[in-house]
Amino acid sequence: MMKGIITFIGQYKYIIVPFLVWFAIQLFKFVYDLIKTKKINFKRILQAGGMPSSHSAVVVALTTMVAKDLGVQSPEFGIALIFSFVVMYDAAGVRRAAGKQAKLLNKIVQTPGLSGVEVQEKLVEVLGHTPVQVFVGALIGLIVGLIVA
C-alpha cells in the first residue's frame, strides 16, 4: 500500500508537490491570520498576497524539481525558469500595484463628499507581494524542490 502511494507521488510529483507547497503556505497564512486577528477567515486560504508568496514557492519548487530531474540544459527547465520569472515579476510588480490602487480607491470611495460613487463591497487590497515576500516564497520553493527531487 505504502509503496503504491510513493510510486503515485513519484509519477505525479510535478503536480502533487507544487499543490502541497501552495496548500501548506496558504494554511500557514490562515493560521497566522487567525492568531493575529482572533477571527476565522476562510477566505484567507484562497486569497493572494501576504508572507510568504505561495505563487513564488510553487513555481520555484517546480523549476527546481525540473532542474534536478532533467538538467538545466533541458527545454523543460528553460520553460519552467521563464515561467517562474514571469510569475514572480507579476506578484511583486503588477499585482502589487493593483493592490495599492485598490487601497487608494477604497479610501476615495469611503471619504464623505469626495465621491458620488456607491460601492457594494470594498476592492481587494492584498493582491501582490513585496520583494521580500517573493524572495521568501522562492527560497521555500527552492528548499522543497531540492528535498523532493
Structure explained in plain terms:
It is built from six helices and no strands. The protein has one domain. The radius of gyration is 19 Å and the shape is globular. The model has no long low-confidence stretch (mean pLDDT 83). By secondary structure, the protein is mostly helical.
Structural features:
149 residues; mainly alpha; 70% helix
Largest sheet: none
Number of helix segments?
6
Q: Give the number of domains.
A: 1
Alpha-carbon Rg, integer? 19 Å
Fraction in helix: over 70%
Which range does the strand content fall in? Answer: under 5%
List unreliable stretches of 5+ residues: none
E-strand count: 0
Summarize this entry quickly.
This protein has about 150 residues and is an all-alpha fold.
List the helices and strands and how they pair.
Elements: H1 2-11, H2 13-37, H3 54-70, H4 75-92, H5 94-110, H6 131-148
Helix pairs in contact: 1-2, 2-3, 2-6, 3-4, 3-6, 4-5
